[in-house]
Amino acid sequence: MLYLKLDLQYFAADEKTEKATPKKRQDTRKKGQVPKSQDVNTGFLLLLVFGALFLLGAPMKATMTGMYEHAFQEYIHWDLTENHVHTIFTEMTWEISKVVAPIMGVAIIAGVTSNLIQVGVMFTGEPLKMDLKKLDPIKGAKKIFSARAIVELVKSLLKITMVGSITFAIIWVNKDQMMMMSQKSIEGALSFFGTITIIMGLASALALLVLSVLDYTYQRYDHEKNIRMSKKDIKDEYKNIEGDPQIKAKIKEKQRQMSASRMMSEVPEADVVITNPTHFAIAIKYDESKSEAPIVVAKGVDFIAQKIKEIAKANDVITVENRPLARALYKNSELDHPIEEQYFQAVAEILAYVYQLEKKM
């Protein structure tokens, strides 16, 4: 029963039920693991591209028709020489660039913007590193039949259904006009089909954006689930950040010892030691060239207080008993700092008494 209880406690501690800590999130982000929906990129890209086509359609059409007119009116009469081919290629490339460049620019802006909206600014090379574990066929099979794969399949079917339904509906509504395009001019037919294409693109983009909201919500949920931590993970992370508590305790103890050793070395230079007399001891030094007020060079209670008094006695430093002043100075004064103004008079009287006593001695 004892072993069973210990095993249950171990599994409970190792179960990933806790939210990820900020450090875990930061480390995961450095590896390129962030919640991201490709549908947001696709929907945003389609929306901006078809929007650009809607706004720039007329200039693009004028450029393309002008290019064809120029080709069949002038280029067709040129002799086939090296210079003429170079000229035709250069001019055609320039005209095509004027048509394609704005759309490519909008596509790049859409891609960058959609990624910034989702993950912000992030540069990492972790996903590009070679990882032989990705070639494991067993893990690959598990991914194929995992819950995530099923969600992706359902999502793909839903996208195909939505886009197909929207496209079919728009074509069905405009089927009568399409049948009459044979009676229209080429320019009118191009204008009609261009408008229909842009409407289908914009409608599909909006549908994908609506779907992307649901997909992004799921991606965030799945990401949060994957980066969950166990209580043991949180404790281990805390130890790595803050250090082992036992080591920290040893370091603090060593620092206290060093501080006490340095403090004791200042006692022989003190002018007076004010005591409780048994529990508190405060060593005071007044050096007019360094400070306008007396400075506390050492203080302590119980064992440390006894050590201060022993060192003071061994170095002929006068000890004065003043219970309330000793308690107040210990509580309200810092090492190597001047005493507070409210204790000036009391300490000045003690120093005056010590200086008179030293003169007599």
Q: Count up the domains.
A: 2
Largest sheet, in brief, is: 4 strands, mixed
> Could you tell me how far the N terminus lies from the C terminus, measured between alpha carbons in angstroms?
79 Å
Alpha-beta content class: mainly alpha
Number of strands: 4
- Given as residue ranges, the uncertain stretches (5+ residues, pLDDT < 50) are 1-12
- Content of β-strand: 5-15%
Family: Belongs to the type III secretion exporter family.
Main location: membrane
Keywords: Bacterial flagellum biogenesis, Bacterial flagellum protein export, Cell membrane, Cell projection, Cilium, Flagellum, Membrane, Protein transport, Transmembrane, Transmembrane helix, Transport
Function: Required for formation of the rod structure in the basal body of the flagellar apparatus. Together with FliI and FliH, may constitute the export apparatus of flagellin.
Describe this structure in words.
It is elongated and about 125 Å long. Helix 3 runs antiparallel to helix 8 and helix 6 (147-173) runs antiparallel to helix 8 (186-226). The protein has helices at 2-14, 22-30, 38-73, 82-119, 137-144, 147-173, 175-179, 186-226, 231-242, 245-266, 303-314, 323-332, 344-360, and strands at residues 272-275, 280-285, 295-301, 318-321. With 361 residues, the chain is mostly helical. The two termini are 79 Å apart. The longest helix has 41 residues, at 186-226.
